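Notes from the 1:1 (GR / supervisor)

We went over the backlog. Supervisor wanted to see one worked example end to end before approving the batch request, so GR pasted a single chain during the call. The sequence is below; no edits were made to it. Supervisor asked that the structure be written out right there so they could see what the output format looks like.
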Amino acid sequence: MKISNAVKMRIANLCESRGITPNALSYTCGVSQSTIKSILNDESKNPTIATIKKICDGLDITIFDFFNDELFYDLEQEIQ
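Structure output shown during the call:
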């Protein structure tokens, strides 16, 4: 799995487990709806750590909590 897919799936799973929509997430974390949408729709292949940190803040979790998930255990090596 590529990291962009893992990030997308992690955000979607966290929203679902908390019963919030991506739009509600954008409001609570201060990231635009279009940015959240582009991540979730695979339009943004490389969300920044700053954006992920804002999302974590909105979800009231740490960066460690975000990445401490099975989705990130077996990522493909991505050579650019």
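Supervisor's comment: The domain at 3-72 is CATH 1.10.260.40 (434 Repressor (Amino-terminal Domain)).
Batch request approved.
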